[in-house]
Amino acid sequence: MTPLDASGSEALLFDMDGVILDGWGTDEVVHARAVDDVLADRDLDASDDVCSTLARNAYDDDFRAACETLGVDPAAFFSAREERSATRSVERLAAGTRRLCPDVDALDELVDRAPVGLVSNNYDPTVSFVVDHFRLDAFAFARGRDLGPEGFRRRKPDPHYLNEALDALDAASGLYVGDRATDVIAAERAGLDAVFLRRDHNADVDLAVEPAAEIASLRDLPPLINAP
Quick one: angle between helices 28-41 and 48-55, nearest 10? Predict the structure, then answer.
């Protein structure tokens, strides 16, 4: 790939989970407990199978059918569950359940080369907390997905939030660093060069899409970015 030219209108964007923050994402138990919260708030009882469906991180036909068995509006229940999931996720992060990846210090070298942004499929309140809690001052823009069905539909590989980041950073192109195939697809759809970060948790992933570059550490990024 052609190195990013920091003197032009280009940005350097990152995924969060597995790239900046260790681990694939929010623990599934968070969503399960969030379902319990919403059911208790509404004084509802549900079978284990229904609870399991409602705790899945998907707004689909199965979720809507499970809501119908309870006589509740699917969109409203999904939004309420996501609000609870976001709250519980932040509480767990504050308690120290997850850490920054050890190579995040590479951002210090990159911040002077191009505008830096964070774009994640994780909840926007969670992303905001991570940036503030870990003092990730390198990010001039940070965005997670909105809570609720619309935010779910706009998650990657939809490029919606990547395009929002480019607009906010006044950039027309650049790089997006991610650790999933959906990151690569979303980057391409947004007109970005996709950089696939291969860590222990995705070491054996066989990508069906080809990124512009593949790296083993964030410290491998500087050679891909021309100094201004």
Answer: 120
